Amino acid sequence: MSLYKLIVFLFFVFNLCSCDEHSHTYKDQEDVVLWMNTVGPYHNRQETYAYFSLPFCSGPQREISHYHETLGEALQGVELEFSGLKIQFKADVGKNEYCSVELTEEKLNAFVYAVKNHYWYQMYIDDLPIWGIAGETSEAGDSYFIWTHKKLDIGWNGDQIVDVNLTSDAKVKLEKGATIAFTYEVVWKESNVKFTNRFDKYLDPNFFQHRIHWFSIFNSFMMVIFLVGLVSMILMRTLRKDYARYSKDEEMDDMERDLGDEYGWKQVHGDVFRPATSPMLFSSLIGSGYQVGVVTLCVICFEIMGELYTERGSLLSTAIFVYAATSPVNGYFGGSLYARMGGKVWIKQMLLSAFLLPVLVCGTVFMINFIAIYYQASRAIPFGTMIAVTCICWFVILPLTMVGTVLGRNIAGQPNYPCRINAVPRPIPEKKWYMEPYVIVLLGGILPFGSIFIEMYFIFTSFWAYKIYYVYGFMLLVFIILAIVTICVTIVCTYFLLNAEDYRWQWTSFLAGGSTAGYVYLYSLYYFFFKTKMYGLFQTTFYFGYMALFCLALGLMCATVGYVGTNIFVRKIYATVKID
Length: 580
Known about the structure:
Elements: H1 2-17, E1 34-41, E2 49-50, H2 71-75, E3 81-82, E4 93-102, H3 105-116, E5 119-125, E6 128-133, E7 135-137, E8 144-157, E9 160-173, E10 179-190, H4 205-208, H5 211-251, H6 254-259, H7 279-306, H8 314-325, H9 327-340, H10 346-375, H11 383-412, H12 437-444, H13 446-464, H14 472-499, H15 505-531, H16 537-576
């Protein structure tokens, strides 16, 4: 009997707790929370402050504290504060004054500054975002007004909220000593919108599914066909001629071979698999590139399956979780490559591999964070969040990287090159200026950038402007196209380099693939000056700092893809030719 009572009690408690914004189901007349999030300049999307940093006032309801539910919320500057307004499910509220503010000199200046800079604010009801403008300026530009009335039209379907619209009304002139009364109104309407489709109104299919977007995909696909054909021609025709020439050389005696004019990539067979300079750094970069590539692919697939953009901070939280969970990938490929290159201090390499990218990211973010703290912006990362990120690095990423490193050294750490490495390096002959590695590196990123720059515009607009990126199927196609184009370009570049009897292909293929990120960063400069109206130290630092991190991750991924494809190509051609 006691067990039965316990089950009934737990069932009652569960039902009592199940009706809220977390379960997204409500009973009639149940309280619905209106959260006030942030306020900031319209043209500086990331420069946001707490809503009540402006002299707005809250309603009479008791205060409800909000905590950061996810790590992504804390990192993205979500600052939810209770509005104090009484809103109940399916209960209309007529126009009602909830507070008033007397404009002192300080409060007047704060409101005028906000109106001058086109401040907008964000609110949430049941995780649905709502945006509004603080006020407006007169046509002459000498008077400033603030909107004092908020009308909320809330759509419901069954026991769930499926739509929210805000109408700002009743503008009042800002004058010193005036008392401004703030009012609100709530109208509930039954809606046919399904709960699963309630975010569709925030999407912009006319922008993201424009025919230019489709044309860019088609254009990139044609580029892939061209490059694959070019690489196939090299592999099937040019290499066939090389093999025929080298086979003819094998039939000559030593005197004829000495008098002959030998040239081409076969001449560097004794040096082509020589370890790259700075093998520790090189292997750590390769390991980090593998990890970034896996994380990118996983997050794109999760977005396609789960629509993470509908939850606050979920995309960033997922990316952090996947990055930590895939740390063995970093250790495995970086550690095994370092072992094959003859590296001995594997613990130092493992530490460098584990902390290379996190240190660069955290260092840049914390530098931007100091500016955010100075501005008292909501983007300032709390100290507790910094501790959490540090703990993830030390207690999750580091041990998993060590596991991957140990496995990589023991499973794939033995060198199995098709050619013997000479004891003495072969001198590199002089060649044309356009065959120098630095020229190849600079030119290597042009075609990969050309295959993605249209997609970069859509991604930049979704992050730096007011669009929600949701066409992750497009992103997956672009990801695949970028990988194929990068591999083809680096293979062609490496073939020309080896044919010039220059065996420094490891760093060249890596940097040629990674140079795509340099062109993306140059494009971000163009985007900042010609496509946005951002201003101020904080927003400018935020933009260029995070664009540098984005390009760093993109460069690591593309560089690793280029190196891996080129490595397979080089091993294949030297395994086929007969070498004494």
